[in-house]
C-alpha cells in the first residue's frame, strides 16, 4: 500500500543502531513518504549527514541555531510539516530529555512544537533500558500519547544480551504502514461523545485493606482506545489499574463504586453512548474502620451492603445515552446476560464467559457475545483491541438505526 505524500520527520539520536537509519529512510521513501531528517549531536558520530541527505533528497538539519537551515525550514515549520515524527534510534538520553520536556536541540524542540504524533524506536544497552529511570521516562511518554515501537531483545553491540535492540527498518516500516492504515480507516463514531467505565473498584475495610476483584482494565482501556480512534470524544472513568491512558482519551481515576457512580453522573450530561465495562463490586463493608483492624479473634464477620448499580442508574435517566452493559458469567451465559439486559433496561449487552482460561478477567484476549432485544452476535475469540473494535462497530450500527 503506497503512502504517497505523508510527511515523516525522522529523528536520529546517538547510538550504534543509527547506522541503520539510511536504510530506514530509503524504505520509507519506497512507500511514498517524504522524509526529512533531524540528527542529534550524538547521532553524527554514527551516521553522516551527507549519506542521509543523499537518501532522503533533502538537506539534513542538526542545529537549532544555524541561520541557514532556520531560514530554509525552521524548527517550527518542520514541526508543522510533519504528519508524524519517528525517532529511530531513540537513545536513553533522548528519551530522558523528551520525558523532561526539554528543548535543548533541534530534535527535542521540534517534538515540543509539533502536534503530530510522536513514535519512538528505543535502542540502548539492556541495563540502561531496564533502569527504573528509563522505564519511568518511557511510561511518562506513553501516558502523554507517545507510541513505542520495540525494542527487540537479543545480542547487543556491547556484547550483552537483553532488551534494547532497535527494531529492524523493515519492521518499523511495516508498523508505520499498519499505523497509517488504522488512522485512515472509517470513523463510525466521529463526533460522538462516549463515556465508559473500566477496571475494578476497591471497597475499603480499613485504611490498608479492601474488597476487590481481578479486573485489569484491559477490556475497558481497549474500548477507550478504539473509540477514540473511531472518532469519538471519549471519557474513561477508571478504577485502580496500572495502564497508560490511551491517546486522546480523558481519564478520571476513582477507587470505590460510589466514587465511580459520582464521576459517571457528573460526566453524563451530553453523552451519546455509555458502556459499563467496569467490574464494580456489588457489595461494600457497612463500616470502614478508622484504624487497621487487629487480628483479635480466630474468625471475623464483615457486614456488607449493596453498592449502587451504576449501569442501571444511567439506563434509568430520562435523557439517557445508548446504554451498553457487560455481563461476566461462569454459567448460563445467555440466560443471565439477557436477564441483565432486560432488568437494567439496556440497549445492548456484551457477555463474556469468564470461566474459560485465556479470556475475560486479566487476559489479553476475550470472546464476547452481544445480545440485544431481538438478536445476538458472537464476536469470536481475539485480542481485546479487536473485540473492542467489533463491539463499537455494532454499537455504531445499532445507534444509527434508532
Ligand atoms: O478488566 P479486564 O481484566 O480486561 O476484564 C474484563 C472484564 C471481564 C472485567 C469485562 O469484560 C467485564 O465483563 N466487565 C463487567 C464485569 C461485571 O462486573 O459484570 P457483572 O455481570 O457483575 O455486571 C453487569 C454489568 O453491571 C456490568 O456492565 C457492570 O459494569 C455493571 N455494574 C455492576 C454492578 C454495579 N454495582 N454497578 C454496575 O454498573
Are any ligands bound, and if so which?
Answer: ligand PMT
Q: Considering DSSP H and I runs of 4 or more, what fraction of the residues is helical?
A: 25-40%
| Structural domain tally | 2
Percentage beta strand:
15-25%
CATH superfamily of the largest domain: CoaB-like
Structural topology:
Blueprint: E1 7-12, H1 21-30, E2 34-39, H2 49-56, H3 67-73, H4 75-81, E3 84-90, H5 92-99, H6 106-113, E4 118-122, H7 126-130, H8 132-143, E5 147-148, E6 152-155, E7 161-165, H9 169-184, E8 193-198, E9 203-206, E10 209-211, H10 218-229, E11 233-238, E12 249-253, H11 257-267, E13 273-276, E14 283-285, E15 304-306, H12 310-315, E16 322-329, H13 333-343, E17 348-353, E18 365-366, E19 368-372, E20 375-378, E21 382-383, H14 384-400
Parallel strand pairs: 1-2, 1-3, 3-4, 4-5, 8-11, 8-13, 11-12, 13-16, 16-17
Antiparallel strand pairs: 6-7, 9-10, 14-15, 17-19, 18-21, 19-20
Helix pairs in contact: 1-2, 1-9, 4-6, 5-8, 10-14
Bound molecules: ligand PMT.
Residues 197, 199, 215-220, 257, 276-280, 282, 307, 309-311, 325-328, 340, 352, 354, 360-362 line the site of ligand PMT.
Account of the 3D structure:
The chain is of the alpha/beta class and 402 residues long. The chain has two domains: 7-184, 3-Layer(aba) Sandwich (Rossmann fold), CATH 3.40.50.1950; 193-400, CoaB-like (Rossmann fold), CATH 3.40.50. 34% of the residues lie in helices and 24% in strands. The protein has 14 helices and 21 strands. It has an eight-stranded mixed beta sheet with strand order 12-11-8-13-16-17-19-20, sandwiched between helices. Strands 2-1-3-4-5 form a five-stranded parallel beta sheet, sandwiched between helices. α5 packs across α8 (132-143) and α10 packs across α14. The longest helix has 17 residues, at 384-400. The mean pLDDT is 94. The site of ligand PMT has 29 residues, from α10, α12 and β16. Ligand PMT is lined by residues 197, 199, 215-220, 257, 276-280, 282, 307, 309-311, 325-328, 340, 352, 354, 360-362.
